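Job type: complex structure
Entries:
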Amino acid sequence: MNAIEMSNDGYLLLLHSNEWWKDLERQELEKYVAQSSAWLEQLMASGKVKGGQALARSGVIVSGKSGRNVTDGPFAESKEVVGGYLLLNVETLDEAIAIAKTTPGLEHGRSIEVRPLTNVCPSEARLEELKREEQLATA
Amino acid sequence: MNAQNKNEYLFLFRGNEWSKHLSPEEMQKVASQWMAWFERLSEEGKVIGGSPLDGEGKVVSGKNGRTISDGPFAESKEAVGGYFLLRVNSMDEAVAIARQCPGLPYGAKVEVRHIVDQCPLSGEPVPNIHIETALA
């Protein structure tokens, strides 16, 4: 089987967006946009970012057998939505958290999810757990 | 200018609960199917990246990120368990691919989002940073 190498080192930041800036006056909005751009450029220059993009506001959620349910998401379901992501190539959770703390807009109620990438599929990890439990039970 | 003219889409695989009720055999089956799905998409040249996410993690919030909390990642219908970043031609195509997710019959959900190359706030171009994927 050809092993596909996924980017398994590093951390994913999911930048939740609550659109707190929606009713800002133009001048204030420009200020925030400039602040965000500067932050991103600084991050890129630091060499700690290996990926990052903004997401369109619209989107869908696919669920159900054969994905038969396709509903408008995610703002239809939640006030806080993932507005963008960053992939960091830092080595520790603490470093990833330190970067997350610098995200503009935190003071306005947005949150940043910090997740380690793993090369163990969650269901496989669960499988290993079950196997261990079985072994203990029959020991 | 159309902000959504990039042909890149992000899948966020949502829900952790669904795999907890599977037998080891079912789990194995789903895991293999998932890997095969990803490989097939890679062979078709549609994969830019992807990874499972560790169940550990934190949520940073508050001014200067002063609040660090454990996420509800372990047991949540909405927790993100992994992502794919794909290159396809339309949302319809992205959705058609999402419908192939092997976790769907068990309750997993796939959030499908279009990448933009324009800031939704200002209309200015945004940096689009690409990860490198190594294909064996």
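Summary: The CA atoms of residues 131 and 137 of chain A lie 10 Å apart. The beta strands of chain A are 4-5, 11-17, 49-63, 69-73, 81-88, 111-116.
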